[in-house]
Amino acid sequence: MMMKTLILGLGSPILSDDGVGLVIARALKGKIPQADVMTTPLVGLNLLDLFLDYDKLFLIDALVSKNPHPGELKKLEPGEGTVHLFTSHGLDFFYLLDLGKQLGFNLPEVGAIYGIEIEAPVSFGEALSPALFQKLPSLIRFITKDIEDSLQSA
Amino acid sequence: MSEKITINPITRLEGHGKIEIFLNDRGEVEDAYWQVTELRGFERFCIGRPAEEMTRIVPNICGVCPSAHHMAATKALDDLYGVEPTVTAKLIRQLEYNAFYIEDHYIHFFFLAAPDFVVGPDADPSERNILGVLGKVGQEVGSKVIEVRKRNREIIRLIFSKAPHPEGGLPGGVPRGISDEERKWIKATADYSVEFAQYAIKLFKDLVLENKSYLDMILSEAYSLKTYYMSLVDEHNEVTFYDGKVRIIDPKGNEYALFDPKDYTEYIGEWVEPWTYIKLNHLRKLGWKGLIEGDETSLYRVAPLARLNVADGMATPIAQKEYEHMFDILGGKPAHHTLAMHWARLICALQAAEHNQIIADAALLTSKDIRNMHFKLKKKGIGCVEAPRGTLFHHYETDDQGILTKVNLIVATQNNAAPICLSIKKAAREFIKGTEVKEGLLNRVEMAFRAYDPCLSCATHALPGRITLNINIRDQEGKIIKTVDSE
Questions:
Q1: Do strands A56-63 and A73-76 pair parallel, antiparallel, or not at all (unpaired)?
Q2: Are B45 and A125 within 8 A, CB to CB?
Q3: CB neighbourhood size of A36 (10 A)
Q4: Which residues of B touch A16 (CB under 8 A)?
Q5: Closest residue of A to B455, CA-based?
Q6: Of B60, B130, B466, Cβ closest to residue A41
Q7: By C-alpha distance, which of B464, B227, B268 is closest to B384?
Q8: Among A116, B164, B226, B283, which is 20 to 30 Å from B426 by CA?
């Protein structure tokens, strides 16, 4: 049976660079035919329904670190967080995976978590900052190839 | 491009909660403040846009309760365009809103509140979580919670396209009707939700009320706060979530005000203090009297316990019985016991489920008359709902073309901000004596504010991120003598 793959872009569409994960995910639509692409501003338990019954999951999200280099991409290890993988309402993403597995749900293997560095604080706006916008093509190229390689090696 | 990194939670997000506790020269807690930082500019972001975009924009300011903002915005547009939704549209909106209540309230109870009561307030933090809860009560509880939420989210998805992140709110109506076929599974979902709600309340009674130490904790002075209370009520002064008048009662339970939500500015004042970015709401006509409780206060509280304190009863029969039982145990109305919010939350979820049973049986639910399009732009619109965390107001003003010129939001956590400070102070006074900090201080103090289910994302218009709760304990000279960090 064919593996079901989800590429999930996280972020808010009205918080400028915070939504970089959404922009990149949308750009991947159709580029990797065997993968579904979704975007969401949701956090916590609300995410669970989105990736139930997928076999593999790739996450794209904004990342704020101590000394950010806007547009730099980090492939994160499980347990390392991006902006929207944690929530004030109790359940971070990795905890959610543990819980779902314990409850017997079919949850995906995490293929990769791509964190795109942004500068904090962000402001309200629907466009990315020029610095981040300029780096979009290379980010999309890298993530596309990385996901393709990952799926081929699976 | 690959590198392992460590992220400091303090720099990761703006919605950062911090508690500052000040001791006097005798080592007793003198004051406590809950401080919040803010991401500004939401109103400015909205101004200049067509007002009808608000139902698309506002669900994005909160990754936790988008449905409440969506519904408040939809109702503000009704008012702005001078249009009354059809009876069927109101039924469908309430159906969706009740479904949202059910899914939201169970997240809080099972994932945030239950660990304190089921696993224990002083348990090892690594076990004081939902997995610890499931270890105690059985994994089938977790599956039931996921199932009841999933089924109710299907209702949200059906009506407003996406769940739980709706975007289809329209002035005067709803984007789609309900078919006879859909009515069947909606009814089944409502039946399942009522059954689950009764199960959840029984669980609460068995695990919490049967444990004397927990009941004593709920009734203790450390977790009690005497304030005014505010909530929406229906025409019978019963609990309502979607629509009604705003009622306020005083700390003794007497009605202080009953008004149309459109008049909210006459009653609600917003006070600014230099130590926090969140505005501190109070009763405008009483004036700002500072962070005090009791008969002289001008502070009010919202959220589930406030709803039950304010109303004369529940709007559905089984919930009414639970309401009566709750106040019997708590010693009558109003109940000032902050931790009883968890109990009240479960009763609200029960009413939402029962109400959806009634709606599912309503003949007009499947009518095709789903929208009133007789618009007359009034240039000012105010929408108000009972959000799960309390009364929520959206206020929009436009020019002659319906382009926004003013936006003001009063969100539940803002209503509760000053009382949260006081609740923290009372808990801190109980558990902190000098520099000697009792085991589990962080959690005992957190419990005082977690009961409110505060959501900083929309209260401060901040990023929807994890709140790290840092507690600084300072001596009389302001010097930090101890720091406790939830990370």
A1: unpaired
A2: yes
A3: 14
A4: none
A5: A88
A6: B60
A7: B268
A8: B283
User: Which positions 8-47 of A are in contact with B (Cβ < 8 Å)?
Assistant: 12-15, 18, 40-46
CA–CA dist B227, B334 (Å, integer): 10
Q: For an interface test with A, give the residue of B5, B42, B46, B449 to mutate (most A CBs within 10 A).
A: B5
Query: Tokens for A134?
Result: 């300029």
Please list the pLDDT of chain B residue by residue as tens digits (487 residues). 332 222 222 222 234 457 778 888 887 888 887 776 555 678 888 999 999 999 999 888 766 678 999 999 999 999 999 999 999 999 999 999 999 999 989 988 888 888 888 888 888 877 888 888 888 888 889 889 989 998 999 999 999 876 567 888 999 999 999 999 999 999 999 999 999 999 999 999 999 999 999 999 999 999 999 999 999 999 999 999 999 999 999 999 999 999 999 999 999 999 988 777 778 999 999 999 999 999 999 999 999 999 999 999 999 999 999 999 999 999 999 999 999 999 999 999 999 999 999 999 999 999 999 999 999 999 999 999 999 999 999 999 999 999 999 999 898 888 998 999 999 889 888 887 776 666 577 678 778 888 888 766 554 434 333 344 566 777 777 777 766 654 4
* B43-430 fold: Cytochrome-c3 Hydrogenase; chain B (1.10.645)
Q: Which residues of B are less than 8 Å from A127 in CB distance?
A: none
Nearest residue in B to A79, CA atom = B6
Residue B261, token pair as written in the block: 């939500």
Domain spanning A5-153, CATH architecture: 3-Layer(aba) Sandwich (3.40)
Domain residues of chain A, as ranges? 5-153
Distance of residue B131 Cα from the nearest chain A Cα, in angstroms: 7
Q: What is the pTM of this model?
A: 0.90
Return the half-sphere exposure (C-beta side, CA atoms, 13 A cut-off) of residue B249: 23
CB pair distance less than 8 Å for A88 and B12? no
Q: Please give, rounded to a whole number of angstroms, the shortest distance from the CA of B469 to a CA of chain A.
A: 10
Give buried/exposed letters for B79-100 (b at 16+ CB in 10 A, else e).
bbbebebbebbbbbbbbbbbbb
The sign of the dihedral angle between the CA atoms of A19, A24, A27, A29 is negative
Provide the CA B332 distance to its chain's centre, in angstroms. 23
